[in-house]
Specification:
Elements (H helix, E strand, L loop, with lengths): L1 H6 L4 H13 L2 H9 L3 H16 L3 H14 L7 H6 L4
């Protein structure tokens, strides 16, 4: 019930703050930060690239995905977004 009230709030900043803190302080994310794993950076770059692609900024999305691919190999599968949209 409390969760529904917090997410139904009209204040977008307060809602974003709640979602951010509830995601950042989860056990798996804290473990990644504690051990210095680069998966967190890869995931952030993939999310940023996909967000920019959806918002109509394919160049910025390509840069973000390129950084993710440079850190790890598996984000190359996100190139299917650009291939499907015939941008590549």
């Amino acid at each position: 019930m409390v969760l529904r009230r917090l997410l139904a709030d009209d204040d977008r900043i307060e809602r974003a703050r709640f979602i951010f803190t509830s995601v950042v302080f989860t056990a798996p994310l804290v473990a990644l930060i504690d051990r210095g794993n680069i998966e967190l950076c890869v995931i952030c770059f993939c999310c940023l690239g996909t967000y920019m692609f959806v918002r109509g900024r394919p160049f910025g999305g390509t840069i973000a995905h390129g950084l993710a691919i440079a850190l790890e190999g598996y984000p190359i599968f996100f190139l299917a977004l650009w291939i499907k949209a015939k941008i590549v």
